[in-house]
Amino acid sequence: MKLDVRNLVHVFGRQEVLHGVSFSVMEGEFLSILGPSGCGKTTILRILVGLLAPSSGCVCKDGVDITASPPSRRNMGIVFQNYALFQNMTVLGNVEYALKFHPELKTRSRAVAEDIIDQVGLLEHIHKKPHKLSGGQQQRVAIARTLAMKPDIILFDEPMSALDAATRISLREEIKRIQGKFHSTMLYITHDQEEAFALSDRIMVMDHGSIQQLDTPENIIGSPANRFVEEFVIANLRLKINSLVKYLKAAE
Amino acid sequence: MGGLGSSQSLRSLRDKNTRVCGAVVKLSLTAFLLVTVIFPLITLLANMGLADFRTVFALPKFREALFNSAIAAATASAISLVVAYIFALCTVRSLMPYREVLSVVITVPMLLPSISQGMGLILLLGANGILTRLFGLEHSIYGFGGVVAGSVLYAFPVAFLMFADILKYEDGSPYEAASVLGIPRFSQFFAITFPYLRRPLISVVFATFTLIFTDYGIPLMIGGRFITLPVLMYQEVIGLLNFSRGSVIGSFLLVPAVVAFIFDIANQDKGSQSFVVKAREKPKNTLRDAASFAYCAVSCAAIALPVVAFSVLAFVTAYPIDTSFSLHNIEKTLRMGADRYLVNSLIIALAVASLGCVLSYVIAYCTSRTPGKSSRALHLISITSLAIPGLVLGLSYVLFFKGTLVYGTLAMLILVNAVHFLASPYLMAYNSLGKLNANLEDVGRTLGIPRFYIIKDVLVPQTQRTILEMFSYFFVNSMMTISAVSFLSTVHSKPVSLMMSEFEVQMHIEGSAFVSLLILACNFAVKCLIYGLKRRLKIAERGED
């Protein structure tokens, strides 16, 4: 078991936003956390990566309790919403900059950065700044920046929320390709049902701070655990599909 | 990352240190602002007893000054606002030639002390004024008319900048919809423009009124027997050393600014923030453009005339008796120490600009990028300085800092200016920093980059142009201010701008003209320099691959 989360509770002010969430993630697995905004998914992600301390509960990685470890000690990478690239630095700068703060990587930071940039296919853009790149290329820079630290888990915080539909579809292929290449464990936060189903080995559906269902895409479709899953996930997917099917049928 | 125990524990320590460090920084900033803004103000308010209040209020000259101030400020604001709104419309909504040049020329008065505007008007329309003699005018400029005219010249560029900003970011799509629906243009103004502009418009009205209401440069120069509140306060404090009466009058000067301040705060979060969805279409219209150009050109001429007048006067032997070219007045002014005081001014302006930038940037970083109650409190104290007129701040410093080591030194003047002009640059930094991706510090935390380096290598480079703008704002305002510094300067620490209020007493108007020119030259040079640097940065950002 790669990651084991036990009884996470989190309270903001007087409001409890997570009510004892427990789940685990397997090595090399792609798990999506799917839910409407305000369901607590981003809170979970921030706790996992160490940006937020939970009110109670624990996070174990490879059997070690890391609940109190600072973010930089957890060996997890995160790709943020809208990527949060360093706009004033080149692609190389973005990937190399953090390496300089780690004694064990400092001396070969340039070589490590160039290697990763090559592996994500951005070598020809290495001296460009982010605003000169396409949305997809920017995502690759963000992923390369995290991969350079050799994390064993990568988390995505709704990375594509600002992009258009067509780009999103091509970018999720890219994420799958990178996962295949680096064999990383990935956690993907999204409110988009289609995205979750296209990417994941398992999906964790959340609402109001609790897990509604955690299962494979097939099982969620086959036997939804409750009304919420049925409405938020399945009904929405069906609407999307139906709106297209009638055109496809007409075309046939 | 993995495997190196010692460096890991070092890093976890660093994480904790960062948090402690952040709390300490916020606490010291709050303490600093309490000492430099809130405590002096409280001292001022505590300094006036109820008895003083009654005595002052019973004085006929006080009532008269209050009435004069209110009526002059109201009249001048109304005129400034109308003139400025039309000017802004012309530059933003028309396609007239030289739009950009005209909108820069119109802001030249913002590089000069208000007292210079008053002086320029006297030169043009005073008893022996150039225009008075040319056209044989008989009506005197001194008094109400002069104060209003000078205040308009002084305040309308400021109002223009605010209007232009509002109009520039107005969404054009409702107008398109209205046109498609066949709503006439006249109704569109009341149906769309007015509701949209109402809140920012009220802010501009307050700001303009406060600016005029609290200024003493123009009424001092041109008011004659028409005494306004700031002039009365100045006379009480400087002439009669009556601090408690000065405090009472000062508290009256605070009123409109405080009202404006509360209005702004109350409306801040209700969000009339309209994002430009679509810029407004500008159809071709030669008549409109010609009319706009004529209007703006005339306004610019009106703004430029006083400046031209004192530029000429500085090099004339003795106006109006002998109008031959001479450097006599300049020599005389230099003999009176203009060069030494100019050095003082430059030291003050540079120090205020450097310290002010660091201070406002650090505060803005804390308030815009670290959430929490302490940030909100810090934000509120920082923009409080917007509500304090310079004269009031100056007097409160006299009362609060008298007897301390800094009192009477250049450092005192640097401090008072840095605080007086803090709010605007602070808001510039606050807005720019707030626009950058909110997760940059979290990126740093997960990748093990210390916060300081994120600020130094990521945030500062991305806000360079804002920082330059902040520097310029601090510098220009410190060079030209005569308000907060007037009660605090000594023979040794006096800035050059204050020579003008002395020359007014000594009737050495040529000296004032020369000093105005000096200030204008310095400010213009700095503005050009900043403009050049900003352009270079822009080109560098664009050109790079």
3D architecture notes:
The complex is a heterodimer of chains A (252) and B (545). With 252 residues, chain A is α/β, with parallel strands linked by helices. Chain A is built from nine helices and ten strands. In chain A, strand 7, helix 6 and strand 8 (185-190) form a beta-alpha-beta unit. Chain B has 545 residues and is mostly helical. Chain B has a domain at 1-47 and 326-545: MetI-like (MetI-like fold), CATH 1.10.3720.10. Chain B has helices spanning 5-47, 50-58, 60-93, 99-105, 114-125, 130-135, 144-168, 173-180, 185-214, 217-222, 229-239, 243-268, 286-313, 328-335, 338-369, 373-384, 390-401, 410-420, 423-435, 440-447, 451-462, 464-480, 499-506, 509-543; strands spanning 316-318, 322-325. In chain B, strand 1 and strand 2 form a beta hairpin. The two termini of chain B are 32 Å apart. The model of chain B is unreliable at 1-8 (pLDDT under 50). Chains A and B meet through strand 6 of A and helix 1, helix 20 and helix 21 of B.
At the fold tier of CATH, the topology name of the largest domain in chain A is: Rossmann fold
Proportion of strand residues of chain B: under 5%
Number of strands of chain B: 2
Low-confidence stretches of chain A: none
Primary descriptors:
heterodimer, A: 252 residues, alpha/beta, Rossmann fold, 2 domains, 6-stranded mixed beta sheet, 4-stranded antiparallel beta sheet, 10 strands, 40% helix, globular, B: 545 residues, mainly alpha, MetI-like fold, two-stranded antiparallel sheet, 24 helices
Summarize the structure.
The complex is a heterodimer of chains A (252) and B (545). Chain A has helices spanning 41-49, 91-97, 103-106, 109-119, 135-147, 165-182, 193-199, 217-222, 227-251, and strands at residues 3-12, 15-25, 30-34, 56-61, 64-65, 76-79, 153-157, 185-190, 202-207, 210-215. Chain A is of the alpha/beta class and 252 residues long.
